[in-house]
Input
Amino acid sequence: MNTSVKMILVLTIIATLSGGLLSFWDAYTSPKIEEYRQSEVKKAVKEVLPPAANYREKVIQTDSYTFYLGYDGDELIGITFNIKGGGFQDIISLMVGVTPDFKQITGLSVLDQKETPGLGTKIAVDPSRKGEETWFTEQFKGKSPFPEMYYVKNKQAGTENEIEAISGATISSQAVVTILNTHIPAAKTAYESLNQ
Amino acid sequence: MAKKVTIKEDFLKGIWKENPILIALLGLCPTLAVTISVENGLAMGLAASFVLICSSTIISLLRNLIPKQVRIASFIVVIATFVTIADRYLAAFYPDISRNLGPFIPLIIVNCMILGRQEAFASKNGVGRSILDALGMGIGFTLVLIILSAIRELLGSGTILGIQVMWPSFTPWMVMILPPGAFLTLGLMIGASNWINDRRAK
Amino acid sequence: MELLVIFISAAIVNNFVLSQFLGICPFVGVSKRVDSAVSMGMAVTFVMTITAVVTWLIYHLLLVPYNLEILQYVSFILVIASLVQLVEMFIRKVSKPLYDALGIFLPLITTNCAILGLALIAVLREYSFMESLIYGIGAGAGFTLALVIMAGIREELELADVPRHFQGAGITMIIAGSLALAFMGFAGLI
Output
């Protein structure tokens, strides 16, 4: 047999087998991966909303944000959405929950970050504070994103716009604040234009 | 002097004498990148070993059918297929590990250790010997990853597999879990393995 | 502005070699002399830029519309392998001196994990076409930078008295560690 014919034949056979095997595997694993992704989002959404006895949710997709509306029975208790922005080294992805009028933050959680291990990662988990490892995101609860949030260093946060920065990771702390300051007003506008 | 190759040798050479990381310096990228914790190191070692063993088996079975000119392309397709399988498996069943390892699972495709074993061994030897060779290399690779990640996790976070082992007042050496720590630790390990080899040769 | 940030991030702050650990094999293997380091860096940058563009097109115009994302790895690596081959043939036709300078490094590039890593990370971060292109150039520049610095140090090192067991790979790793430490100082630049 001609060598080049054999070359093409062998490569085609290998590629076909590989494609077949993979499409079978894709059908097997894809639903599980999708299911996990959904459950992660669900978990994060519930985490940043106030507790509800009779919880259910509604999803509204817009061009720029996906809003998850949380209800307790028939009452709208909060709106959550995913926001992203640049951190110290890479993108930080956050899930934030606000009251229906956007005036107060009901919760914040870090979905993804690649900050400096041991310093910037404290925005998600701070192992040095036993028992309150997520203090950084916890402190956003009840704070107001308007007119603007800012951070203070090495002292307790006072006003409802203030949060305490992580010492040694001011830039990561600032990044989180900046992401909130950019996206919450924009999300508010997007959300309000939905109801009109 | 030609030594007689035994079954035991096929298996054992990967663990120390031709260790893919310490001696052959192959597959260094994942070695350095993922060894922040023992869990990650172990997962990477097992994933790479799985791909190596499966690819070696297939390549060794097909070794007489693949024309020489397209062998590298064929190896890569086979390896990439098994890497996709491993990657999807982790994403579906161990999502946390999959997220920690990020792009380094797909990067097993270009791990020179795996392609190297296909070229140097599996494409020239029978199935049985190729599997033994892959098994030995896989274990050698995994062992080094475990040792390296154990050193880094212990000093960098004071834990092993997430369990606190250092005394409570121990201040973690932050640098160990940052990129410089990876290079320094591996450098010292390579030096140490050279020293041990030297001692044994005497 | 956004594009400048991507470039600086890929080239310096998140340097491909020293903080992302991509392309370590050539970093250890081809960093003995400055001139070959420069050639290798140029070849890699060249291939990286083309790869960034071509894999973006393949992913967004072929794999996503036909729901074939599972073939991402297989198709990317095949594309890279054939690209390297094409580039090699092209350079040989067009410029003999350039081929002489880059020629021996080209085949090595297929298995350089920095190239595949670049393509995968660009997809993970959902970069646009322009962003991918800039990311490719930045990553190549960062790779070249790390390689040339390393080669410069290793040339000097020939005169130094390195402990016997650390000669070669051992000392290279330790120097790379110090370089990585220095590059960490750039963090926060963006």
Q: What stands out?
A: The interface with chain C takes residues 15, 18-19, 22-23, 25-26, 86, 88-91, 116, 171 of chain A (CB under 8 Å).
